[in-house]
């Protein structure tokens, strides 16, 4: 009975830690410090990094029963939680300078969490973490296995703040045409595709011989990592910006791959048929398509190969693709063509919502102004472009021959319907390619089995002949 209460308390505290962590990502300070380590203190930044790693280790220790993760949390986390409480300095006073009237308006949108709430969430999360550590001692005792700590470094790497590398360069000093800049059809583009393929293939071979329990835990770890890294964008976008986006409105999960993060992760946690089929049919193809073509270079700003924007994009989309296809590849779910109806309806609803919300945000930005009456100019208006419903990523334009006005914005309905049709075609093309791969693989395996059987039969016949010869000689 005591263990039941402990498990329930751990579950509630873990949920509270994750809820606080999610809310804190909507503050500039949460990730702003990691590419300014010398400014905010090495020890404090490391303590915050370890706490990011704990967001992965705690769910694995509490919900998946991983003793190795519990050992790390019990003995490592308390030190860094205490350090973060003692060394925060001016962490809660971080704001982004507003040098232009447009930036003043953007700040009004972004800075919606007051300082007192930021501090409350920060210290509440620390308190919840310490309570979890104490309960893990009660649940598991003080006994520890040294081999548990081999998982500490992988956890820290998985949850690494991806803007960390920006400590070592100033993007403003790198020319726009530099070899280091990420563009379509460059060596960096090819490397991103290789990473996607290698990550998925290695994940399959790593997991295929695992037990069901271990496989679920590893897939769960991938899903939690994806959610942690995905929500790092909430903070970065308000501080230094992500790609071409600079307001928190770009964090609304109405991009196809953004909502796919939740669908693919939930499919791993809940293991429900609809989630599996939607992740596989819609979001695997969506994640793959953006690796083939990243959109027009002039509408993107990924920085250089180790900038936050391209590292975030590559890692989150590689994880999304892997989580969308691995359950089917590992035999946990088998997609059938008749399962495509519900995902098609789901995607249609997403496109409609994305179109309407994009129009509403842009219309609203036309009404925003500073206290002295400055309104955003045409180039400064916010175009969230949810699910690519406002800006065509392809190098040609669709004429606005049929439009629908929503508030102050005209939606190009011909483009939106065409967008839906193109993506549906991509979904079916991906599924067809998947079935073709399975057919080829089945034939190859059948030939291997046949060749093995033939070789075995030939060896048996040769053995029989030798036995007959030995009998005759006798």
Automatic annotation (TrEMBL):
Keyword hit for 4Fe-4S: no
Keywords assigned by UniProt, alphabetized: Membrane, Transmembrane, Transmembrane helix
Protein's name according to its UniProt entry: YwaF family protein
Spans through the membrane: 41-63, 75-92, 116-137, 149-165, 185-207, 216-232, 244-263, 275-295, 301-323, 344-368, 413-438
Organism: Candidatus Coproplasma avicola
């Amino acid at each position: 009975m005591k263990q039941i209460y402990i498990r329930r308390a751990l579950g509630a505290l873990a949920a509270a830690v994750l809820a606080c962590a999610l809310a804190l990502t909507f503050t500039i300070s949460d990730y702003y410090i990691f590419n300014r380590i010398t400014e905010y203190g090495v020890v404090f930044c490391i303590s915050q990094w370890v706490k990011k790693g704990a967001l992965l280790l705690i769910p694995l220790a509490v919900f998946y029963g991983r003793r190795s993760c519990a050992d790390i949390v019990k003995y490592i986390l308390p030190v860094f939680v205490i350090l973060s409480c003692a060394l925060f300095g001016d962490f809660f006073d971080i704001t982004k300078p507003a040098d232009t009237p447009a930036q003043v308006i953007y700040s009004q949108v972004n800075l919606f969490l007051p300082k007192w709430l930021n501090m409350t969430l920060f210290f509440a999360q620390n308190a919840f973490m310490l309570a979890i550590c104490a309960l893990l001692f009660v649940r598991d005792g003080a006994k520890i296995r040294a081999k548990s700590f081999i998982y500490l470094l992988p956890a820290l790497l998985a949850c690494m703040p991806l803007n960390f590398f920006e400590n070592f360069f100033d993007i403003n000093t790198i020319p726009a045409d530099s070899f280091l800049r990420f563009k379509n059809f460059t060596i960096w583009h090819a490397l991103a595709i290789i990473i996607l393929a290698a990550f998925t293939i290695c994940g399959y071979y790593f997991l295929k011989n695992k037990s069901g329990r271990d496989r679920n835990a590893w897939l769960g770890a991938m899903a939690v990592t994806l959610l942690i890294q995905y929500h790092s964008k909430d903070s970065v976008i308000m501080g230094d910006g992500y790609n071409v986006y600079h307001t928190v409105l770009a964090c609304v999960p109405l991009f196809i791959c953004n909502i796919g993060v939740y669908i693919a992760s939930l499919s791993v946690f809940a293991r429900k048929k609809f989630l599996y089929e939607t992740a596989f049919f819609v979001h695997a193809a969506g994640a793959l398509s953006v690796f083939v073509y990243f959109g027009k270079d002039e509408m993107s700003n990924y920085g250089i190969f180790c900038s936050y924007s391209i590292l975030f994009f590559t890692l989150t989309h590689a994880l999304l693709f892997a989580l969308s296809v691995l359950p089917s590849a590992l035999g946990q779910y088998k997609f059938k063509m008749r399962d495509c109806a519900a995902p098609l309806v789901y995607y249609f609803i997403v496109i409609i919502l994305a179109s309407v919300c994009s129009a509403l945000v842009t219309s609203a930005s036309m009404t925003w102004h500073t206290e002295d009456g400055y309104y955003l100019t045409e180039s400064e208006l916010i175009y969230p472009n949810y699910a690519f419903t406002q800006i065509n990523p392809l190098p040609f334009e669709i004429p606005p021959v049929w439009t629908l006005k929503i508030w102050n914005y005209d939606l190009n309905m011909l483009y939106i319907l065409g967008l839906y049709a193109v993506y549906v075609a991509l979904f079916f093309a991906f599924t067809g390619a998947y079935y073709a791969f399975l057919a080829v693989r089945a034939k190859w395996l059948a030939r291997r089995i046949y060749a093995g059987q033939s070789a075995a039969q030939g060896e048996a016949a040769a053995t029989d002949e030798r036995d007959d010869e030995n009998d005759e000689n006798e």
